[in-house]
Design a protein that fits this description.
Layout lengths: L2 E6 L8 E9 L2 H6 L3 E9 L4 E7 L6 H24 L10 H25 L5 H10 L7 H5 L3 H9 L9
Antiparallel strand pairs: 1-2, 2-3, 3-4
Length: 169
């Protein structure tokens, strides 16, 4: 990226901040896309032993605050990755904020209940297999705790039975 140095902010005494410069885009097309000034911050994260650079158009916040915001942003990205992998939400049923939040809360409650059942029963397989067991035996008149205590052979025989027999009304 071609950039032109315009000035700098006073470097605070906060640990980790290396520089806090004001820049302008130097390329012809990038200058047309963004003609304003930008803030270029250099930061060293001692926890991860990494050097990071941030660019922002926010000139009011402190450089350490901007670095903390970007660090928190990555934690949010990791959280959403966890939601996608563990809560198995493929699509949202609604588009409003309330609908999305409700679906996430329900999925999180279900996940926590599975984790609690796994912990209380000392169930050895993963939560994924516990989820499959619940899904496959949802309409049966059997206690979940009884199903968890069955051995693998007996459980396999139950799964091979005609699934329509489980739908007695």
């Amino acid at each position: 990226m071609v950039a032109r140095f315009v000035g700098q902010h006073e470097i605070p005494k906060k640990p980790g901040i290396i520089f806090d410069d004001v820049i302008e885009m130097g390329g012809f097309y990038t200058r047309q896309d963004y003609p304003g000034k930008l803030r270029h911050i250099g930061y060293y994260d001692a926890e991860t032993d990494r050097y990071l650079e941030f660019m922002t158009n926010n000139f009011t916040l402190a450089a350490a605050t901007i670095a903390a915001i970007y660090k928190a942003r990555w934690q949010i990205e990791i959280f959403f990755k966890w939601i996608k992998q563990n809560l198995k939400i493929k699509t949202f049923l609604g588009t409003s904020k309330n609908a999305v939040m409700t679906q996430i809360w329900v999925a999180m409650c279900y996940y926590l209940m599975l984790a609690y059942v796994k912990y209380q029963t000392h169930y050895k397989p993963s939560l994924f297999y516990l989820h499959r067991l619940v899904r496959e035996t949802l309409l049966e008149h059997a206690s979940l705790f009884d199903l968890l205590n069955l051995n693998e052979a007996r459980l396999a025989r139950l799964k091979r039975q005609d699934p329509q027999l489980c739908l007695k009304l």
